[in-house]
Design goal:
The protein contains 24 helices and no strands. By secondary structure, the protein is mainly α. Helix 6 runs parallel beside helix 16, helix 8 packs antiparallel against helix 9 and helix 10 packs antiparallel against helix 12. The longest helix is centred in the middle third of the chain and has 27 residues. The N and C termini lie far apart (54 Å). The relative contact order is 0.14.
Amino acid sequence: MSAVPPPAPSPDRVARAGQLLGPLLGLAVAWGAPLPAAEAGAAGGALWMAVWWLTEAVPMGITALLPLVLWPLWGVQPGGAPAALVQTASAFTNAYLFLFLGGMVLGLAMEETGLHRRVALHILARVGGAPERLVLGVLVATAAVSMWISNTATAVMMTPIAGALAGRLEAQAGRRLLGFSTALLLGVAWGANLGGIGTKIGSGTNSIFCGFVADRLGIELGFLAYSWLCLPFLLLVLPVAWGLLWTAASVDRAHLTPVPVRDQLDAIGSAGRSERVVAAAFGAAALLWVLGDAVRPGLVSIVGPSWKARHWEAAVALTAGAVPLVLGILPWSRIARLPWGALALLGGSFAMAEGIEVSGLSARLAEALSGLGGQPLAIQAGVAATAAIALSAVASNTATVNVLLQVVPPTLPVLAVTAMGASCDFALPAGTPPNAIVFGTGGVRLREMVRLGVVLDAFCAVALAGYAALWLA
């Protein structure tokens, strides 16, 4: 008789182990590694942060504050403790934090007014009510909304819509349609994860990637430049995702009939003043972000060379986000709902990266990985993408990016596929909040999520390798 496997450790046990293991490993490396003091301190601090992030031992925003203590204490940056503290704290005023903040406020205003739901229903209505079109519509609508607001908020909004569409079809068929329901719900999870890849503000991982590239490689990725790099990958994956989802849905093909979506759109009525104002602010911000590369040179002549793409985009985001607040459309009390810990995490990731860079540890890591760096670009990208997808299955995508960007070959194509790969876990409920939200409805069986998700994971890993070699090179 085969032995019964032991139960998996609970999240609480993993967190408690991480609370102890993080500082123990960090101190052991900082004080005992055969490296110069600054490099050892940076390595120990980064390891401490990685363990806490990956095990979620403490809130991620708290972990992000560790460089404020460890870098001055362990001499990671030159100039003594006071100067190191000032330099480390400056990472928390990076323009990318304000870009992300403005984008989150604008997204919150869309949620407050219901504009995001109207946009999603408009997309569904235009796609059509045929069953295969509904699966495509849910996937595309979710991805389109997730390009502008958080993937978690998008999944929370779209899950009831997908459930209602599945319920309508089941009522028409007079029976359960588990395959079709699975396809619609997974369409929400997959669309929410993939959509964040498409724009610079779509996910916190994108801001971390852009900030890392600006600081490490000196490359400023404007809003349009980022989308030029990454949006084509989203467009490449969506048809494949739809094909997989329709494979799951087609087992109910004999019982599927068209669903009128227009009536749901009619039921919410015409857009009110608040929705129109937020839509105008959102449209103006998107236009100004796209035009940033054309406008910024004129601003540089006025403000000076320090005015970079990130500053223009942050100013646009904050101005657009302020409009619904100033006009009373978005109550100031709602600002408390913003994920402030995510902003701290961004600052902490920039502080960690800066410490690794100025200490000299990044050069040592690059030398250690010179073997991988000497391989063809497709192999480098494939290894980086596979590692990102695998790690994001058990850790948050921001934690994955924070860890992997420090160790993969520091070239733009490899860094880009690492960031994109972190948004491409589709197989496990714990992989991303959208996966968990969808699985929590009870409408998706675990084996179906894993079976379909592993196929899409594998496709994304291979596709990212080719994408780096053919598009990003």
